[in-house]
Amino acid sequence: MEKTIFEKIIDREISATIAHEDDRCIALHDINPQAPVHLLVVPKDRIARLAEADDAAAPLLGHLLVVARRLAAELSLDQGYRIVINNGPDGGESVPHLHVHLLGGRRMAWPPG
Ligand code: AMP
Fold first, then answer.
1. Domain ranges in the chain?
2. Is 99 among the catalytic positions?
């Protein structure tokens, strides 16, 4: 299977601004930020999307949220932030490699577009 853009970043074949890395995930700055802070928390083991994560992935999924929460605190997003996972065509997914968006630094609208 061809590598996703995020696998190429994890393997250092493509450069990115990496904000965090551990044994299970990386966090990088989005190349097309939708807010003053826009990070992507990406598992190193490729799962295409949330719908394809099995129940055994629960600890990994939790870890992605814990990392997002830590990064939000480190970045002093004390007025709040938004966590987004786009799943499939209706969800607006463009990269078939699960990732958690962390958006902050501005007031978000609701409902999302
Ligand atoms: P999604 O639409 O939820 O699949 O999100 C994919 C995100 O990946 C988008 O916000 C893109 O801007 C971002 N993206 C795509 N290519 C890169 C890249 N090379 N480095 C950083 N972010 C990227």
1. 5-104
2. yes
72 near 104, Cβ under 8 Å?
A: yes
Give this prediction's pTM.
0.98
Among 15, 21, 17, smallest CA distance to 29 is for 17
**In whole angstroms, what is the distance from residue 72 CA to residue 67 CA?**
9
* CA–centroid distance, residue 50 to ligand 1 (Å): 16
Give the rounded distance of the alpha carbon of 36 from its chain centre.
15
Query: What is the arithmetic mean of pLDDT over 69-85?
Result: 98
CATH number of 5-104: 3.30.428.10
Q: How confident is residue 113, by pLDDT bands cut at 50, 70 and 90?
A: confident
Work out which ligand 1 atom sits closest to the CA atom of 92: 2
